[in-house]
Design brief:
About 25% of the residues lie in helices and about 20% in strands. By secondary structure, it is an alpha+beta fold. A hairpin with a 5-residue loop joins β13 and β14. The structure holds guanosine-5'-triphosphate (GTP), sulfopyruvate (SPV) and manganese (II) ion (MN).
Amino acid sequence: MAMLFPKKTLPPTKHTVLKNWVSEMAVLCSPDKIVWIDGSEEEKKRLEDEAVAIGEIIRLNQEKLPGCFYHRTAVNDVARTEHLTYICTKKKEDAGPTNNWMSPKDGYKKAGTYFRGSMKGRTMYVVAFSMGPVGSSFSKIGVELTDSIYVVLNMRIMTRIGQKVLDCLGAEGEFTKCLHSKAELDINKRLILHFPEDNAIWSVGSGYGGNVLLGKKCLSLRIASHMAKREGWLAEHMLIMGIEEPNGHVEYIAAAFPSACGKTNLAMLIPPEGLKVKGYKIWTVGDDIAWMRIDTDGALWAINPEAGFFGVAPGTNSRTNPNAMATIRKDTIFTNVLLKKDFTVWWEDGDEPPPEEGIDWQGRPWKPGLKDEAGRPVKGAHPNSRFTAPAFQCPSISFRLEHHHGVPISAIVFGGRRAHVAPLVYESFSWQHGVYVGATMASERTAAQVGKVGEIRRDPMAMLPFCGYNMGEYFAHWLNIGRKLEKKPRIFHANWFRTDEKGEFLWPGYGENLRVLEWILDRCNDKPNAVKTPIGYVPTQEGLDLTGLHISKEELKKLLEVDRFDWIQEMESQREFLSIFGEDLPEEIWKEWEEQNKRLQE
Ligand code: GTP
Ligand code: SPV
Ligand code: MN
């Protein structure tokens, strides 16, 4: 094996702090060797060959899926483990009531015992990566040490990696120290620790996406949100998309939905038939993370710090998301989907009918109609199975992804998965009311995190699992940003998931969501197609362009309904949630709650 990397002996950097840290972590983890990742094509080939040789990944059918690979994570390691994810600050208050907390001392000590010797017989890869374009003043650099080639190959797609990043870091640049080891992949020895005060992340015992691709949720949200609070910007769990009008003018929106609630799908949408005559074009800037700051023009500008998509596979097909299907035709890594006999892949609600046989996400033989001992259908692909694909392969990708400056945001949309209560869309009354709407967002739990699927939980700004500090202070930070913004984006709330009595979705969703975005942009341009309700402005019955869509008057009414009885109950549940922040909750949020409560009682 050592022969695969014959030349690499000296670290290709003059950064003393970095070199010392790598040596120190190597002493802790005891890898057989250390390999500095340069990011070249030849290196990619070598890594793929080696990972195939040791069984870490499977090469897929290169005729049908050129450059594609398959990976299966451990059965108990298929989603983020929020209960094992901690914010390690000196003071417990700084993590706030919604985060798990450990002192940095305890964190290093406890995880240290799992890391000790964990890389024996393995290689430690040193992956320098840039979140945001390399060299941009708004980008952040991290270095991830990992014993997983799968992680290296994913980081290669999701971020910008290698020598160019080390060069950019120079001899003294700042970087986030990211340490990862699969160790024993034992859930009882798994910890995902964040040390915002040390700019460090330690992740051990997992091989799953958000737990181990440390540039993503760990750096770009948990650590970055902490930095953003100090430096006066926002790090958010948001997609960014552009909507181009026929005259070539593009308006950009940012939208925060919890995990597996439709960000990737919305960011890549294709205009529905009925709206095609209007000539809209959609540009995808990002599908998961937005870093936003106030620019010299007084507006809010956003970049997507990532370079790839780590998207949910099930439900992705040529009807729901043709752009995603085009993106994943080559050079894609598939994780925990069904492996077919011809070495292609399959998932539930994809393009093809189920194959006659295959190997499921647990590595077991599978065929359609298979049931478990309790008689429940066995899925071929895990509901949180994913694809990792380069963003530039997406037909709708915006060239602005590589722009250091990002894009100006006209509207912010919060949203969740709510079978009841929340209407299809509404507009908040002001920035302050909008922050309250975001702070009280709720959603049904999905398969993207371990826990009971379907359970309603409050998920402020879709950041509950990702805010690296006290969320009470986070709301205050949002209010502050609003005070500083001269051109404030309007704030909306959307819900594609309202159901009828039979539990069927009332709204067709996907491409049809453009109809809602159109209304949102109309509102940003002061079009009066809305009615005032106690919770905000809701479209009038004629406010949405429904050309070509078959939806009954009753269904539309139900979709847009603000039921006072439901909302009064909702307010009680919000009160309970807001109370947990105690003194840390900005009084403006309470004030908005009280006023909305009053409007509902009137
Ligand atoms: P993360 O990557 O976990 O952050 O998820 P995401 O927010 O990007 O969600 P994604 O777009 O991958 O969608 C998750 C699931 O929701 C998929 O199974 C989709 O098919 C489904 N979904 C997305 N948009 C819609 C919609 O408009 N309506 C309905 N009914 N389902 C949708
Ligand atoms: C999410 O769960 O919100 C994701 C996938 O985007 S993960 O990278 O696992 O966090
Ligand atoms: Mn996400």
